[in-house]
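Q: I'm writing up a methods section and want to include an example of the input and output format. Could you take the sequence below and give the corresponding predicted structure tokens, formatted cleanly so I can copy it straight into the document?
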Amino acid sequence: MKFLIDAQLPRRLAIAIQAVGHDVIHTLDLPNGNATPDSQINNLSVEDERIVVTKDSDFVDSFYLSGKPYKLLLISTGNITNTELVNLFLPQLLAMVEAFEESRFVELSRTALIIRV
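A: Here is the clean output for your methods example:
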């Protein structure tokens, strides 16, 4: 799968996902870095068929209003250390990949993987 990791999430998460074989871009890798506007992230997501991974609820609004990004993974863990995030994310990765075969919007909380419509 192809992922695009948003600015509020650590590059460390992108590196961990890439280490298990997925194609990952962090916003830091884009020309405008973490200052890349959401609209550009959405467009890149659609063009490259990338799943946007974010904590930003603005992407949820955009998803429901305009159908962008291509697919959305909302991280709704609240405050969490980078280590805790990676340790929560990686064991759920296979389930996320399977969820995205049927849905365009998935949410990861501290306790559940939620498949949204």
